[in-house]
Amino acid sequence: MKIKNLKVLFMAALALLPIFTLTNSLSAQEIWVKLLRHGAVNQIKLEEYVCGVLAGEISPSWPLEALKAMAVCARTFAANKVMANFNNYYHITSEVRDQVYRNGFGQNESFARAVTETQGEVLTYAEDLAQVYYCASSGGYTASCASVWGNDFPYLKALADPYSTEDPYNSWTLILNPNEFLRALHLSGTLKNVEVIKRDESSRVQELKISVQGRDYVKAGKILRDALGSNQLRSTFFEVRMENGRVVFTGNGWGHGVGLSQWGAKKMAEQGYTYDQILKFYFPGTIMGEVVASP
To answer: Are residues 30 and 124 in the same domain?
Structure first.
């Protein structure tokens, strides 16, 4: 098996790997994903896997076009993982660090329809599978991949997202006592101040200065989020201040902010956008392709 985009091989070296072919038409052959879940590896058909990701990531009550956009994202992400981990014990996990997966939802009509109507479809760029990411809500501005992970892709730049400004996660507040805040960062002493000293082009926090008893510590925004927990500090798109002896965060969005905003996709679908229009907005310059198993 080999990998092609819509017309040509994109890398001769990968022609030696039995993974995927991107073509203009679908094959009857099926692609299998080796999924690590609860300590065991299960082989699942790609399209069934995508259905389980939809069940783990979004609601079946959302508009069909939003579900279809998410299906293409999930399939593209999985295809990249299978390629990268082809010779490994497993390709992908069922955890949030990859894609949340829930089984037993293959018969859900909304999910099944979204998967069927996008069967095999993936995003491509420059004769390659695109690197596709998504988050719950961008908070009104997506983040660049370069800023978050250091890898620069032309289709993963920071951009204003007017479709993610009214969702349940658009704004949030987190209040911590100083000791709780310092413990999470493995610091001790009397907290004097917390100040943002560097932001990226989307206004997400890149660095903070934490003053403890006359000594200053500089911490990366994503390190702080990891330390406090991503369910507490929902994003690095925040303001922070000391107020009445407590650390107060007021922020926007939920997640890393790179790529598609799930709640933004929902809003776009509600406004009449099709799934391919949604994907073009969040991944500008990408082209739809189809992935099939090669003989």
So the answer is: yes
Range of the domain at 20: 13-137+257-292
Other Cβ atoms closer than 10 A to 107: 8
Type of residue found at 195? E
Short-list 122, 114, 25, CA closest to 77: 122
Higher pLDDT, 295 or 219: 219
d(CA 134, CA 124): 16
Quick one: tokens of 129? 């599978």
Q: In angstroms, rounded to a whole number, what is the distance separating the alpha carbons of residues 10 and 15?
A: 9
Query: What's the CA gap between 85 and 120, in Å, rounded?
Result: 20
Report the share of the chain in percent with pLDDT over 70: 84
| 204 and 275 belong to one structural domain | no
Beta bridge partners of 211: 193, 216
Main-chain dihedrals φ then ψ at residue 18, nearest 5 degrees: -80, 80
Tokens of 219: 């911490």
